[in-house]
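Data card: per-record layout.
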Amino acid sequence: MGDDLPKDLDEMTDIGAMRALLTQLVEAVRRNQESIDKLTRTIEQKDEEIGQLKQMLFGKKSEKVIPVDREVKRRRKKDASKAKQDREKARQKRKKNAAAKKKLPQEEQEHLVPDEECHCPVCGGDRFSFLGWEESVEYEFVPAHFKHIVHRREQKACTCGQHIVVAPPPVRVSEGVVYGPGMHAHTVVSKCLDSIPFYRLSKRFERSGIPLARSTICDIFHRSAGLLEPLYKRIVELLPAETYVNADETRLKIQETDDDGYMWVFIGGPFVVYRFSQSRSGETPTAMLGDSQGVLQVDQYSGYNQVTTPGKRNRAGCLSHARRKFFEAKKTAPKLAEHVLATILDVYEVEYDAAADGILGTEKHQAMRQLRSKPILERLKEYLEDERPKHLPKGPAGKAIGYFVDNYDALVFCLSDPKIRLDNNISEAQLRLIALGRKNYLFVGHEVAGQNLAVLQTLVATCVANKVNPQEYLTDVLIQIQTHPQSRIDELLPHNWKPPPEIVTAEA
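The structure for this 508-residue chain is written out next.
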């Protein structure tokens, strides 16, 4: 452009040439400004990426999003009436715990006054009369122990000498198996509920007096899964009939292939159902839910798209998932993030108020959401739409805003039905057991082992969800399943199971 300019601008008198030159100058400035803006955005993006890498490398590993219930409780403590409600809840919990402790087996120990203490320093006498007992309480742990049961079957012979009868054999978990149903149940609960790997369980058994190889414990575990699989299949059959289902998935390595497998969880009605798969594709949600109708509450992973199309299930989003993304954006956009986090907390306050009033899931709860929650979320959406152009689309803030705005309909679907939760935390909580197991037992051996884990994890988690003791349930059902009619198998599902008389008597 410089070669076209006249050597002496003072000599330029052609108005047209001057206008052309001015246009060229304006265009050059515009191009330069675009380059500067582009370079600035690139620098900002790199700064954000560097900040994230520094946090990953040098930041606190424990810096995680604070659970929303803790945040709400912290805020509500400032309100005297809410604090009074919290104190009443704590009192009720202590009362419930005390009642549970009273059900424990009780043992009385008498501590007598030694003879040498029976000397009165006042009168010098030594004739003391009984006054009463001073009582105090102590709770003691009695280590678990094994029993060596010898079954002796009576034999009788007819006096004619031609016929002999023998008492029926004891019912065993399986033919020729020397370990009882309680042992099988304890192994399953230890792994599925306590996330104890077999090598640690082997050490525990040895301390209790019975050396047991890991391979034997493994056999016990997988035998239990084989026996209880009919119950699992029945639960899978019943799941699609539930109109409201929560779902999520997480990785679990397969030792045989050294690849990642996936453990899925589906929660509906009384059921907590796990399923193991070698892939994260939409085949698993389709196999579990098929063409059923209702609501599926999940994150925005595309693997659930096949079961949330028109004519199938409506998709409800996870507000907690959106909240987590804004928490991650606090370092790069603190003002925005703090505002959004506080606003989302306002929505959760409505749920806590509904719970305190005892109206969760009712029409009054629905009216409360429409009156308070809906305007809060609508204002938040408008605010984020205005803020969106100010942030890089691929930066933490831009991603958080995009997630909320683009998935707004799914995130506010809960406003249409008071029974639908604000978030999918219930599924994530169930998968924490798998995540803890992933740290402890590291992997499953192969696909069959993964599915056996899903079978037993389903029954144990469903027991817990229905306030059934999984140890007692499995001990009883492992025997019953062998003779129980298939047509009445629903009677053995955790939410329908009735404890045998000996357990009811012990609890009473």
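Known properties of this structure: The longest helix spans residues 15-58. The first strand starts at residue 155 and ends at 157.

See the next section for split statistics.
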